[in-house]
Every structure is written in structure tokens, then in C-alpha cells.
Design brief:
This protein has 9 helices and no strands. With 191 residues, the protein is an all-alpha fold. The two termini are 33 Å apart.
Length: 191
């Protein structure tokens, strides 16, 4: 960062904005490349740690790593918050309801993890190919990520609706609601 600030300061003194821009683009590329190397190093050591753990603990540690590395991809969806609340805070669930909710949650988790894996692949590819001009233009990708985001929102909405169908109106009232309430036109479908 200090190197970039020094380059910008020198350019303003000399009046050579185009030369400074080339140097800034070059510096950005070097920083990006170093970040990718660091990410790959973290991944390599995480795989070694996971390989040394028992399978149930390995899955938990890997999930925590992915949540820390890609927080926007692994943030809780409305459906996940509702599953958690239903199972932990709704004390009027019957044994049958609990069993059906657990099965529904397991299905949701499998489908959500598949979408998240594709989102991580796309994020990693973007990290490796990011250019300074992409930041100025606000470019997120070539549309693939947006489609996966939409699939994730749709998945959350679908499973939220299925969960609500398993509960009584009184039980439903205890669940967190999407932004905009129950009217689907006003829902926040963020995942």
C-alpha cells in the first residue's frame, strides 16, 4: 500500500498521470498475485489440518474455514435461520414435526452446499483474473454468479415455504421472517 501511495504521489509531482496509471495497474497485479498465493497457501494448510482430524470434526473445521474465507457466500439464509429457530426455540414441536424438519434441513443443506461450491469456484476464478479496471466498473463477473445467487435465493424461499407448511400458525409466528414480511413481493431473498 505504501508503494502504491508513493507511486501516486510521484505522479502528481511530475504530472505524468498515464505513467502513474501504468505503474498502479502493475502494482495492483502484483498485489492480486500475492493474495492468490496467500489464499492457496491457506487452502493447502487447511487441507492438511482437515486430513489429520476425525471425519466429523474435519467437516466442522472445513465449514468454519469456508465461512471465514467466503462470508458473503456462506452467510445464513432466511431458511437456515428459520430451521435453527424452529429446532431450538419452538418448544411445541411434535416428534414427527422435529423429524420432518431435520430431514428437510438436511436436504436444504445438501442443495445449498452444491450452489455454494459453484459460487466459491467463481469467486476464486474472479480473484485470479481481477483487474484494476474491474473495480472501477463494478464488474462482478460474466453473469454466472448472479444466476447462482438467484438459485440460492429461490432455494431459501422454497425451503422456507416447506418449513412453514409443517408448522402451526402459532409456531410460524416464532420464526424470523424475511425482510418485507410474508408478502413475497416485499421479501428479502438474500441468502
Amino acid at each position: 500500500r505504501e508503494e502504491q501511495e508513493q507511486i501516486a504521489e510521484e505522479a502528481t509531482q511530475d504530472g505524468d498521470w498515464m505513467g502513474a496509471m501504468d505503474e498502479l495497474i502493475d502494482a495492483f497485479g502484483k498485489v492480486r498475485d500475492r493474495l492468490v498465493v496467500l489464499r492457496d497457501l491457506n487452502d493447502r494448510y487447511m487441507r492438511q489440518v482437515i486430513a489429520a482430524l476425525p471425519p466429523e470434526k474435519a467437516a466442522e473445521v472445513e465449514r468454519a474455514y469456508m465461512e471465514a474465507a467466503y462470508p458473503s457466500i456462506y452467510r445464513d439464509s432466511v431458511a437456515q435461520r428459520q430451521f435453527r429457530t424452529a429446532l431450538e426455540e419452538v418448544d411445541t414441536l411434535s416428534a414427527d414435526q422435529r423429524e420432518r424438519i431435520l430431514a428437510l434441513q438436511a436436504t436444504y443443506d445438501r442443495e445449498a452446499d452444491a450452489i455454494r461450491a459453484r459460487l466459491v469456484e467463481e469467486a476464486r476464478e474472479r480473484e485470479e483474473n481481477l483487474e484494476l479496471s474491474d473495480l472501477w466498473g463494478g464488474r462482478r463477473g460474466q453473469g454466472g454468479e448472479e444466476r447462482e445467487d438467484e438459485r440460492m435465493r429461490d432455494l431459501s424461499s422454497k425451503f422456507s415455504d416447506q418449513l412453514l407448511a409443517l408448522l402451526t400458525p402459532e409456531q410460524q409466528e416464532k420464526l424470523p421472517q424475511p425482510e418485507g414480511g410474508s408478502d413475497w413481493r416485499n421479501r428479502d431473498f438474500s441468502f
